[in-house]
Design goal:
Number of strands: 7
Number of domains: 2
Helix content: 40-55%
Low-confidence stretches: 120-126
Length: 180
């Protein structure tokens, strides 16, 4: 990374920041898309992160650590949870504060709606190669901040999944240990 460019951006040089934003913006967008699975939501989250980076850049003490520092300022747990909650294609619960494996975060449940007529096809693409199998399918997401890195834990169940199986899935999630 060009520390001179970073130094100029730290002192308010908008052209220098624009040059930095090209590289870091692509990286932030890729991370956001992997979590949100929606291009527009990922663009919003990465743009919000770039605004945060611009605002906080003068406080960066070591320009050589810009990449690591900017990654940690990238879309926050709240950014991801709120973007998921705004997804118009799914029924989504309100994000709730959680702790999992000793780390704080948000949980949110997404469900394929009972009326899938608004879908362009007979399935909803959540991620490449994984498709919703019909109304009632639920994804349970825990979005955590693990020492500045966003981590997502996901479990899935379907309409008709018994309460016992749901409890077993939750027990598995509760047993997760994370070693940063």
């Amino acid at each position: 990374m060009d520390t001179d460019l970073i130094g100029r951006a730290q002192h308010g040089d908008e052209e220098a920041f624009a040059s930095l934003a090209v590289g870091v913006g692509d990286r932030l967008h890729a991370v956001a898309f992997r979590i949100l699975r929606d291009t527009a939501l990922a663009e919003d989250a990465s743009q919000q992160a770039l605004l945060t980076i611009w605002r906080d850049l003068p406080q960066l003490r070591d320009p050589a650590r810009f990449d690591t520092w900017s990654y940690r300022l990238g879309p926050t747990v709240d950014d991801f949870a709120n973007a998921l909650a705004d997804n118009p294609n799914l029924e989504v619960t309100t994000p709730a504060a959680v702790a999992l494996a000793g780390y704080s975060g948000k949980s949110v449940d997404l469900q394929v709606p009972s009326d899938i007529s608004r879908c362009e096809t007979s399935y909803f693409v959540w991620e490449p190669g994984i498709y919703a199998q019909g109304p009632g399918q639920r994804w349970h997401l825990w979005i955590l901040d693990v020492e500045g890195v966003r981590v997502v834990v996901q479990s899935t169940d379907y309409a008709g999944t018994s309460p016992q199986h749901r409890a077993e899935l939750q027990a598995i999630v509760d047993s997760i240990q994370i070693e940063p």
